[in-house]
Amino acid sequence: MTRKPKIEPDTVKREKETGPMDLGRPIEILLVEDNPGDARLTIEALKQSMVTYNLRIARDGQEALDILRQRGQFSAAPRPDIILLDLNLPKKDGREVLAEIKNDSDLMSIPVVVLTMSKSEEDVLRTYQLHANCYITKPIDMTRFMGIMKLTESFWLSIVKLPPRKAEDEHNISS
Predict the structure, then answer these.
(1) Which superfamily does 6-174 belong to?
(2) d(Cα 163, Cα 18) in Å, to the nearest integer?
(3) What is the average per-residue pLDDT within 147-161?
(4) Residue ranges of domains in the chain
């Protein structure tokens, strides 16, 4: 039996039966997206997922860094297993967020999937120079967007072995 995800302003939880890459816990996803329509489409695409996940949404780059660094109201936020990052964000641009993530020894191992409207070759090159794990241009067509999100979810959440969370790293090293 599958339960519907509980949708809160900043968090979506999805519970399913075990998926192909069952970690024994939900996959923590941080979606950094200022466009409510794109965030809704991402949520809809992930609802079809075969894995259990928790989705937290940051609406600007500064909020994303506060979540990642567990500052202020996000002091109890779990470390994400993967980040879906838009580039054109208010307060702090996605390129700046990516640079800070990849230059922070505590965050650099988290895979970052750039998910943006930009088709600029300069953006593609720059984000890979900043060590993005992949770059996906969002299609304008909703059906194509849903298809791309399904493929992205399938690859990153069902096939790829994600790095362990920091607390799990420390436990595994001491074991």
Answers:
(1) Response regulator (3.40.50.2300)
(2) 19
(3) 75
(4) 6-174
